[in-house]
Amino acid sequence: MTELERKQERTPVPKEWTYAPAPEARDVVSLRERYGHFVGGEWIDPAESYTTISPADEEPLAEVGQATPEEVAAAVTAARDAFENGWSEISPAERAKYLFRIARILQERSREFAVLESLNGGKPIKESRDVDLPLAAAHFFYYAGWADKLEYAFPNRRPRPLGVAGQIIPWNFPLLMLAWKIAPALAAGNTVVLKPAETTPLSALLFCDVVRQAEIPAGVVNIVTGDGRTGVEIVKAEDVDKIAFTGSTEVGKAIQRELAGSGKKLTLELGGKAANIIFDDAALDQAVEGIVNGIYFNQGHVCCAGSRLLVQESIYEPVVEKLKRRLTTLRVGDPLDKNTDVGAINSKQQLEKIQELVSSGEEEGAEIYQPPCRLPEKGYWFAPTVFTNVAQSYRIAQEEIFGPVLSILTFRTPEEAVEKANNTPYGLSAGVWTEKGSRILWMAERLRAGVVWANTYNRFDPSSPFGGYKESGFGREGGRHGLEPYLQFDGSETFGG
Ligand code: NDP
After folding, report:
1. CATH code at 203?
2. Average of per-residue pLDDT across 261-265
3. Residue nearest atom 38 in ligand 1 by C-alpha distance
4. How far apart (Å, rounded) are the C-alpha atoms in residues 349 and 440?
5. pLDDT tens digit string along 55-107?
6. Are residues 344 and 208 in the same domain?
7. Contact, 113 vs 206, CB < 8 A?
8. Does residue 240 line the site of ligand 1, with CB under 6 A?
9. pLDDT band at residue 496 under the 50/70/90 scheme
10. Ligand 1 centre from 252 Cα, in Å?
């Protein structure tokens, strides 16, 4: 027996690891009982309201407004006034100053925002703290830098702002999607009316505090809350010059139909069913981490989630075995616990959708695996799930589940991988894992996806454009490309992405 073996015998490795609770303090957030709409720099009392809850335990958090057509119209008028009477005239460097201020305040108040985001949306605090907040601040920093350089971003094209932008965002990254929308719009000289999702309005409402703290002129940023009916009013509003929408393909199509022929600009960032492709020469342990990050990050509520895993046939067994083993170490539970990897499902409605699609997978003949884990009794929860034995025609391989559910398929050759990856109505993102640089480039050229990650997954940067092909939408957000939909150019058409 070696010295090491003797030592191990004296102090055996524990068979079971348990983590002591490590809750993030909640008192950094002070919620009001009731919120109105933020219009023209003031809070207006809503005519109608509803209760927003915490999806982790169904605890009511606050009453928020359900904006009526009149309230949306007031927000659009405030945005128009602010555009005509000051904001479009001020010097670009001055606009940049405001955006820099927002970025700094978000950094200063990041803990408060992160806790609120996890409380209202159900995502793990380590993700809201380490991903959502730093990226939201980075977006404002990045676009602050462009505000006084538009002439250089688009040389010889004389860029000018559009006017009022109507912005409708989903519930999966509430503050980050707000930053993706508001930062480029303001940098380009527009004013905005934004609607957060019905289930996650609180971080957008706290952002109104930041707008005031940064002394942004009244009416430049207006926030109205409510469900899809409020979204419809923003889309229909005559005095809105551009609509930016992130959400489901179904609603995106309805908006496109509504705006056809109106002359309004439109960008749509819709669903996805991304392929994460693992070749047999990939570093398998890293690839397994990439698979986990690709589909279980933010409970799989990610439009670019790597929800279809394509594994080269020769490494199918070791990959599945490593993945299942890794899944047993994921901690599912309280979003405010710093050890939590997978938090709560955002809403009852979304949980039911996941359950329905998972049942269809089992009925169609796929084999399900879920690691043993105890889910909290209250709230909305779904265990991390893997499906093997999946055929391309199954609904779980075709439809966006938007939950922690992975479907595994196999391929033999790079050509087959490309064919299977592209066999979807969507085209938002893809991942390629291989040691060969030439193969990465070969694959990236052929994958019909707006973003292709190589040997990594779900990496975001404000300087990198993001957006889709086919039913994943059109137009780009992020980077210099993300400014273009908020600008008009001399002699250019105004419709389209
Ligand atoms: P929606 O597309 O309905 O929601 C996105 C945003 O649009 C929300 O603010 C929503 O309000 C608003 N909205 C709803 N209907 C309309 C309308 N007719 N006109 C204008 N705005 C509208 O997504 P859901 O939340 O219903 O989720 C359904 C599915 O969509 C998910 O299961 C998922 O598959 C997919 N999804 C994809 C996202 C992505 O980023 N690609 C993001 C969110 C969902 P309200 O909050 O009241 O619904």
Report:
1. 3.40.605.10
2. 93
3. 247
4. 38
5. 999 999 999 999 999 999 999 999 999 999 989 889 999 999 999 999 999 99
6. no
7. yes
8. no
9. very low
10. 8
Q: How many domains does the structure of the chain reveal?
A: 2
- DSSP-assigned beta bridge partners for residue 161: 487
Structural domain of 248: 37-270+472-489
Decide whether any atom of ligand 1 lies within 6 Å of the 110 Cβ: no
Find out whether the beta carbon of 55 lies less than 6 Å from any atom of ligand 1: no
What is the distance in A from the centroid of ligand 1 to the CA of 200? 12
Say if residue 479 is in the same domain as residue 405. Answer: no
Q: What is the CATH number of the domain that holds 406?
A: 3.40.309.10
Hey, CA dihedral for 481, 136, 299, 327, is it positive or negative? Answer: positive
Q: Can you tell me the distance from the alpha carbon of 200 to that of 174, in angstroms, rounded to the nearest whole number?
A: 7
**Whole-model pTM?**
0.94
Tens digit of each residue's pLDDT (9 = 90 or more) over 386-425? 999 999 999 999 999 999 999 999 999 999 999 999 999 9
| 497 domain-assigned | no
- Just list the catalytic residues: 269, 303
Helix axes 249-259, 228-236, angle to 10 degrees: 30
Tokens 């990198």 correspond to 464
Copy the structure tokens of residue 355.
């359950």
40 lines ligand 1 (CB under 6 A): no
346 Cα–ligand 1 center, Å: 12
Instruction: Judge whether 2 lies within some domain.
Output: no
